[in-house]
Structures are given as structure tokens and as C-alpha cells.
Amino acid sequence: MWIMAARRILIGIFLIWAVSAFIFLITQILPGDAAELILGQTATDASLEALREKLGLNQAWYTQYLNWIYGLVTGDLGVSVAGGSTIADLIKFRIGNTLFVGGIVAVISIPLSLSLGLTAAMMPGSMIDRVITATTLGLIAVPDFFVAIFLILILAVGLGWFPSVSYLRGNEGFLKSLYVLTLPIFTLVLVVSAQMTRMTRAGILNVMSSPYIEMAILKGIPRRTIILRHALLNSIGPIINVIALNLAYLVSGVVIMETIFAYPGLAKLMVDGVQTRDIPLVQACGMIFCTTFVVLILIADLATIVSNPRLRHPK
Amino acid sequence: MKAKPIFQCRDLKIEARPWAQEPIEIVKGISFNVFPGQVVALIGESGSGKTTISLAALGYTKPGLHFSSGEAILLEKDMINLDYEEKRLMRGEHVAYLAQSAAATFNPSLTIGEQVIESALLHGALSKETAEKRAIELYLALELPQPYMIGKLYPHQVSGGQLQRLMAAMALVEKPSLLVLDEPTTALDVTTQIEVLKAIKKVIREEKSAAIYVTHDLSVVAQIADHVVVLYDGVIKEQGTVEEIINNPKHSYTNKLMAAVRPTPKANLIEQSVLESEHSNSALVVKNISAGYGGTNKRTPTKLVLHDVSFSLNHGEVVGIIGESGCGKSTLARVISGLLPASSGQILLNEKELHPSVKNRSLNELQLVQFIFQMADTALNPRQTIGEIIGRPLTFYHGVKGKKRDEEVREIMRLVELPDAFMNRRPTEISGGQKQRVNLARGLAAKPTLLLCDEVTSALDTIVGANVISLLKKLGEETGISFVFISHDLSTVSSFADKIVVLYAGRLVEQGTVQEILSPPFHPYTKLLINSVPELRVGWLEETLKKQSTEVGISGTVEMTDVGCPFYNRCHIKIEGLCNTTSAPLTSSLSGHEIACHHLDMALLE
After folding, report:
1. Are B293 and B303 in contact (CB under 8 A)?
2. Residue A295 CB coordination number (10 Å)
């Protein structure tokens, strides 16, 4: 098991490295360089040369790559082309926002979807099961921005209960922030839970037809215990993986959501960076997103390995 | 017996309701009683409804089935009409179930101990300490190794036979009044079957519980049952005491069942079928084959499964490969077919050497060696029709297409005795025995000279299995194909093969003609195998268990040792200091066949 786990971790590290090389390579292939971007088309050769010197663009590509990696690791990401403030500061503010929303959504949606999925699996074919499967299917089928706009229409425009724009200055208290963020959080909980609920239900029902579940029924085990002990333990692998994918989505995939609610999150920062051709910023955001994905999937893989007794206790 | 019955089945009817179709009656009015301390056997071939009836004692039906009328009264309660919660309280505590495959019925994610005592704890029948104590008592009674530790292991960490006994412990923890045993030994090797039968019989006696024993094997019934109910197609054909049924069967169907029981392998019963074949050239020669799994290089596997195995086979002959599970039988077939390239040694087909790997063999070589897999269920593509399955090799190897192909397919189907109408059916629409015939037909369609049959009858019940064997015999005579026939069942092999190769722990321990193998001198392992085949008479189990060779033999398990004789730990005539240090070479015995044992012939004669 340890060898397998170690191998997974090594693969994870390799993946992150490969991603960094890829991101770096792409910016190298793009025509023009940062100096031209900063100074624009009217720049003289002399001023370009001076800026290149300052930014270290005249060095060999591998020195540039190593400098960049060193900067990533130490948090020195350079200065944003657009705003002039350091990239590290920009990201710090935005990542805080993203993690705040993502964290709250995770805390609500994981227990919610697990219990909904389990409830549906416990009574397959029942009214509750049908309501749950139909609703979640609907939520998955409808695009997330539609859900968001729909909620804004009803809860913000129609009823006026919550603000439709979630702009935070950073000095609000926790409850006030929560209030401002109610709509995006609500939207994301709906979107994310739908998938996890369905996966939990499917995972459980998949093992419910195994002979050991029939045996448990014939041993006179209550249905609750059968689901929670016998079935859940054996379907945990796929469930963890879906959770990991959804968490990763909460960090990097919520660009539309952030745009609709004008919420200053990390994904939106990256999109803005693309618009202003702020290459170092885009690079840094890309690295963060990819690393989040790799790390979360790695954790899911490790959890799957640990939850398998055949790997935990070899013969 | 004058006591009141523990369980009464009264005019029980169960039907299946396929979606949007008329219900089909599966069980058609069954009545029988089980008295305290009595073991009632339900016997019949697959599809007779025996498992369905036995589950009625727990008030349970498989998905898709339901009780239509009748009663299943356990301890004065009709299990059928209880609600879920009431049934739940009866199950485990008053009636317990033992399934056919323990490997599938234990939850892989929980420890054995947790699962054994789980039901007792949830019923509040026992406290945790008492339940654990009771479980250890049962482990001791069932003669499980390390009774104080085994509960902490996970199901994959113990052997199949042990798991089967652990399931018996799980069933017995709450001292149920009735045990339902569903083919508990069918999936096991003969030697393991003895071990489990012995344990189950002992525990039933000691616990004074009644039991319903479901099986298709009359020889097993003779060992364990008091009362026998013979079922066919959901109807009772005959019932009576075990002596009545075994010694004096009245119904023609019971007679048919008796006839399908393969005769116990005895040398004198088998007609000499040895072809003295000095001039006929050999169809297959396997020379010093070693093979195994693991490792990055195919030539140096990390785990060696076959050690230096050699045998040969003449045209039109059948060689039986026999041994317990894990002894390398299937690996040998995989090596011959090239699916698993040997790490060393040679394979000669029609006196030409074959490349070890299937990837490097020519189309012609591939065509000449065909593999028939054990599970027709998984070996046949469920989306193809039977005609397509059999037709594929015709097109692939011989380029036959269109009408000509259909004609040839029909011819092959006639050869394996399948009706032409099956051409357009799919594997899911035919029975297990018929699927095995299709499996066989696909192999024949390639027109091979050698068929590798890997346990082709093991998943079939007695009557269907016997039919497949007679079909194979006929095919051998008509086509002149040579067979490598792999089985753990000595009686099947000896009824069909010309030669037998006995494998143990990946080594060849004895080989010769059927006659030579079944008569002394025996390798101690061959002797154990022969003695373990159940005989169709009451009292056989006790007699066999008294034999020292069996007692020692079933107490040990296969060990893959590199030093000395692999059978050392299970041998009743081992020589300390010799057998555990040096492995015995294959030498010619008195009768002329080869045995790998340090003993001189005299010791092996008895």
C-alpha cells in the first residue's frame, strides 16, 4: 500500500511539474514578450531593451524558467502588468474570496448531498427518491448561470431579500459577508450537490445488488445499517472522487458565477488577466488551478487506496 | 419423530413476474417438514427451484420473484406474511443462511469478526463479549486455524475453505433453530469439500439445529442428510429418508439423477483405453515448462507458478490435468496457448516448436490450438448472436463468408447438438449447458488439432455436466482432435481421459494412463484426491475421515515451497530430514508410470 501511495504522490508531483513546464512553454511560444506588452506598440527599441534587462527577459530560457519556479514557490510572482501592484497581493485577496465561498459551499453541500444520496438509495423507487433524482437531474441539465439568473430574478429582483451583486470591500463582518454572498453560495450548493447526490445514490445502489448485501439482509441487519456500514464502505471510492472534482470546480470553474455576481474571485482574476494580456498573472493563476486539481485528485486517490482493505492488509 | 416440526412448508407457490408479461410459476405447490435435529436435503438440477424454496424459510425472495400462495411456517410464524421488521428479527436469530460462495457473501471492507457477530449484536441477542466468546468457540469447533486471531482478519486474507467455515460460524452465532445451507461445498475442491462437510456435520450435531441443505450433488446428500426432497421444475418428485432415496429410488427422475453421478474413480471399473503408440507421432509435447507471474521481464517472473513440467500427448488422445485450485492447472493451459509465455521450456505442436507468446505465433498455429474457457457466461459476447460467435473463427481463420459460413455454422451446431434455430439467439437467451456448447462450438469452428478445456464442466450441474462430457467424447472420436482437459474433479477426468497428469503446487507429482493413476502405487497426493471424491452411499464421509492419509491431507494447505517436497506438510508418510530438504525426482514406478516421491513403491502400494 505504501509503495502504491508513494507512487501516486510521485505521479502527482510529476504532473504539477509537467503543468508548470507547459504553462511556461506556451508563454514562450506566444509572439512578442512581456516588455512589448507593457510598453505597447509605440515603444522604442532602447526602452524595450532596458525593460527586458530589468525583467530578466534576456537570460537563457532555463534561467527564466528556474527564476519563475523559484518565484512561484517563494510567493514572489512579480508585478502585475496592468495594475502595478504585485501579483502576490492580487492573488492573496482573490484566493481568500474564492476559498471563503468554496469552503462554505463545501461545508453545506457535502453533508447535504451525502445524506440526500443515502436517503434516495435507502428507498429506491419511492416518492422521495423520485423527487431527489428528478430535481438533481434537472439541476445538472440546466446550465449553472441559468440557475444563478433564475435565483437572482426570484430572490433578488422579485422578492428583494438578497443583494444580486456580491461585492465585498473586505471589512465586513462574517455574517454580513455571508448575507451578501447568499445567492452565489445558494447557486453553487445547488449545482455541486446535484452531481454528488446522484453519484452517492448510484454508488450505493451499485453495490446493493452484491451477494454480501443479500447476506446482510438475510442476517437480519436493519436497512439503515446495511446502507451505512455495508454499502457505503464499498462505494466510497467513486464518491470521494466526485467530491474532489467538485471541490476543484469550486476553486477554478466558477468564472461565470463570479462574473454574474460581480464577485472578485480567483477565476475572474485570471479571465481579467487574459483580457489585459497580463501574462505573469495568467501563469500564476493557471498554476494554482492545476495544482488544486492535481492535489485534490491525489487526495481522492489516496483515500481510495486507504479505504481498500485488500491494499491496507495484503495477504 | 414425534416432535413438532420446526419448519413447515405448506403448498408453497412462488412466481416470477417479468415486466409486462404473464407471471410464470417457478415453485408449484411444495410441502415438506423439518423436524428438530433433522437435516433435510433439497436436491435437483439448476432451475428446479431449490434455492428459491429454501429462501422461503427466511421469508425472502430474490428480486423479481414473489410468493403467490402457501405458507412457510417457522416456529409457528408464517415467514411470508411477516412485515419487514418482524422478518428481520427472525432472520439471523432463529433462521440463518449459508450461501454458496463465501468469497462473495463476506463484505470485503469489514473484518470477519465484525461480520460474524454483527447480527447477534444488532438483535440484542448477545453482548459484545459473549458474542466474541461464542464466535471463538465456534472457530474452535470448526477447526479453524488461529481461532483467537482469525476474527481480526479481512475476508481476502483467508482461504476459500476457511471462509466457507467462517460463514458457518456466522450463521451459528445466535444458535438458530434452522440453518439454510445453499450448496455450501459446490464451489470447493474435493479435499476442501471434505473439510467443510466434516465441520458442518459436526457443528449441526453439536448445536442440535435443524437444517435445509440445498445441493445438486447426491453423493454429498448421502453424507449429510436425514431426509431428502427431490425437486424438478418446482415440483416434488419424491421424498423420503436418505436410505430410501439412495438405496431404493422410486421415481424415474431420481434414477436419472443417480445415473448422472459419476462413478467413483476405481481402476478396475475403467476399461483399458491405452493406445500403445510407438509409431503415432505426438500432437503436443510440453518440455520442462516453468512459468509464473509478476516481474517486468516475462522471462524472469517474480512468482513462479509452474516448475519444470513435462508431458506429451498423441493425436486423438485426451490428457487430464488434475489438482486442487492454485496448483497451476489453468496456468499450464495459458502457457500452452501462449497467453502466458513460459519463462523456460519448450512447447511442440505436431513436432514443431511453438513460439512461447501468442503474439508471435502464426495464424495457422493459432488456429490449431483453441482454448475453451470455464465460464461460458463471461467468455461469450452477450451482444453477438450464436451464429456470429461461431461464425467469427470461420471467417477469421478460413475466410468463409456469407451463405457458406451459415451452412458451416449449422453443421458445427449440429455437431454440438444445438438446434439450428439458435443461430439468431443471444447468449442471454439460452441455458448454462447450452452456452457451454456454444463455447465449445466456437473452439471447434477454428478446426483445431488441440483443444484446451479449462474446467468446462465445473460450473454446470451433474446432469448437464455429464451431457457435456459425453459430447466431448463423441467429438474426440469423430474429429480426432486431441484434448487437454483440466479439472479438479478426478471422477470427471477419469471418465474421459486417456492419460492423467497430477499437479501439485505447480509441480508434476505423478503421470500415467488413467489405469496407472487409479491403481497403486499412488503418490500420496493422488491417493488423497482419490479418497476425497465422495461416494454415493451413507457413511462414506466418516469412513474416509478415519483414514490417516485424509486426516493429515485435509488439515494442511498448499504451500509454495522451493525447498523439498511441496506436499510435505500434508503427507501422511513423510520422511523427516529428507522430504523437507530435497525434492523427489520423477522416477518410474513398478508399474511403469512416473511418480515424484522419495518412498519406494512398497510404501505407496497401500
Report:
1. yes
2. 15
HSE on the CB side for B378, CA within 13 Å?
5
pLDDT tens for residues B545-574? 888 777 777 776 666 667 778 888 888 888
Distance, CA of B467 to CA of B462 (rounded, Å): 9
Q: Give CA–CA dist B164/B141, Å, rounded.
A: 14
Q: Helix or strand or coil: residue B338?
A: coil
CA distance B195 to B199: 6
Number of H helices and number of E strands within chain A? 16, 0
Number of Cβ within 10 Å of residue B226's Cβ equals: 18
**What is chain B's length?**
606
Distance, C-alpha A93 to centroid of its chain? 17
Q: Are B270 and B514 in contact (CB under 8 A)?
A: yes
Residue with cell 424459510: B57
Task: Name the one residue in this structure whose C-alpha cell is 479505504.
Answer: A307
Q: Is the pLDDT of residue A215 over 50?
A: yes
Interchain proximity B99–A215, CB inside 8 Å: yes
First CA to last CA across chain A, in angstroms?
Answer: 12
pTM over 0.80: no
B352 touches chain A (CB under 8 A): no
Residue with cell 481402476: B267
B82 CB within 8 Å of a chain A CB: no
What is the spatial distance between Cα B245 and Cα B222, in angstroms, rounded to a whole number?
Answer: 9
- The H or E element spanning position B134 is helix B128-141
Asked if B60 reaches chain A (Cβ–Cβ under 8 Å), the answer is yes
Asked if B65 reaches chain A (Cβ–Cβ under 8 Å), the answer is no
| Interface with chain B: mutation pick from A122, A215, A226, A227, highest number of B CBs within 10 Å | A215
The segments of chain B whose pLDDT lies below 70 read 1-2, 19-20, 262-280, 295-299, 556-561, 590, 600-606
What region, left, alpha or beta, does residue B135 occupy, with left being phi > 0 and alpha being psi -120 to 50 degrees?
alpha
The full DSSP string for B583-606 is PPPEEE-TTSSEEE-SS-HHHHH-
Number of neighbouring beta carbons within 10 Å of residue A162 = 17
Q: Which residues pair with B282 in a beta bridge?
A: B314
- Whether ipTM > 0.90 holds is no
CA distance A279 to B269: 89
d(CA B39, CA B226): 5
- Chain B residue numbers touching A215 (CB-CB < 8 A): 97, 99, 105-106
pLDDT digits over B329-339, tens only? Answer: 888 999 999 98
- Burial class for A19, CB neighbours closer than 10 Å (0-12, 13-18, 19+): middle
At residue B299, the pLDDT reads 64
Asked if B357 is an interface residue toward chain A (Cβ–Cβ < 8 A), one would say no
- Measured CA to CA, the distance from residue B57 to residue B65 in angstroms comes to 15
CB contact under 8 A, B170 and A216: no
Query: B293 - beta bridge partners?
Result: B303
Rounded Cα–Cα distance for residues B419 and B421 (Å): 5
A219–B101 CB contact, under 8 Å: no
A143: distance to nearest CA of chain B, Å?
36
